TrEMBL record:
Residues 8-84 form the HTH rpiR-type domain. It comes from the Bacteria. PROSITE patterns: HTH_RPIR. InterPro entries: Homeodomain-like_sf, HTH_RpiR, RpiR-like, SIS_dom_sf, WH-like_DNA-bd_sf. It comes from Streptomyces meridianus. This is MurR/RpiR family transcriptional regulator.
């Protein structure tokens, strides 16, 4: 992705931040970020088709951002980020487009990681929290379990919170009583209200919250101390969270760097696995 496209994407992200957007409006926002070079030239009908929403939804989206309508939003984009529309791209089917969208999301993640300070800070927070509760409900439960599976190899006490219900706050309270200082949350659309409530409870209970979310303007942003954004793909019937998964692995790396005995723990695990013949390869 060119520097110009990166700059256009960044300007779009800043335009959307601070606005409480509905899931449909967030879908439009993600589409515009992915197509940042084309966004100033798209009609409302074209944008609606690309985002998979109705044309009136695009109009409501522009109004939610503070514009009189979509033409005013498009004029603003042309004024602040003039560019030529992308041309010459060959036609690709919907499956290929979904893959390309994920590649674009990973490019945005790579650009975000150019400043490693937020991830390094998060890694230190996670390493220092014993126990470490890891929250992920519904669509995000797989991300939470995947992170916890690997984290348990190097961290002394990882607790997965992947089920909602009346006991969720009890388990957060138990982590606080046991000495936990930070909660890691994976938050993906559509964002369950239970996650928002759980993060509010965690902060009131004294936990700092680190969140991997699909965007910096996700609904849980107000309940997070450190938010690390990684967009999801929206080109298929169900979102594709390659970016959040990769960012979770990056966080694991940063946490290992902050744990002085992480390498020794990994070597011990490998030795025990070999003794037990745990793996076929």
């Amino acid at each position: 992705m060119s520097d110009a496209n990166t700059g256009a994407s960044t300007r779009l992200q800043k335009l959307f931040e601070g606005h409480r957007l509905t899931p449909t409006q967030r879908r439009i926002a993600h589409c515009m970020v992915r197509r940042s070079a084309d966004a100033p030239f798209l009609s409302s009908v074209e944008l609606a088709e690309l985002a998979g929403v109705s044309q009136p939804s695009v109009t409501r989206f522009a109004v939610a951002l503070g514009f009189d309508g979509y033409p005013a939003l498009r004029r603003h984009l042309r004024e602040v980020a003039p560019a030529e529309p992308a041309t010459g791209a060959r036609t690709r089917n919907a499956y290929q487009q979904a893959v390309l969208a994920e590649i674009e999301n990973l490019r945005h993640l790579e650009a975000f990681l150019a400043d490693p300070a937020p991830v390094v800070r998060a890694g230190r927070m996670l390493a220092a929290s014993v126990p470490l509760p890891v929250l992920g409900l519904r669509a995000a439960s797989a991300q939470a379990r995947g992170f916890a599976y690997f984290a348990a190899k190097v961290h002394p006490d990882v607790r997965v919170l992947d089920e909602g219900g009346s006991m969720l706050e009890d388990r957060i309270d138990a982590a606080v009583r046991a000495g936990g200082s930070t909660l890691l949350c994976f938050a993906l659309p559509r964002h369950p209200r239970e996650v928002v409530d759980a993060l509010g409870h965690a902060r009131r209970a004294g936990l700092a919250v680190v969140t991997v979310a699909d965007s910096a303007f996700a609904p849980i942003a107000a309940h997070t101390d450190l938010l690390l954004p990684a967009a999801v793909g929206t080109g298929l019937a169900f979102d594709t969270p390659c970016g959040p998964m990769l960012l979770g692995r990056v966080l694991l790396e940063a946490m290992c760097d902050a744990l002085p005995d992480a390498q020794a723990r990994l070597e011990q695990f490998d030795a025990r696995a070999a003794e037990r013949g745990l793996f076929a390869d």
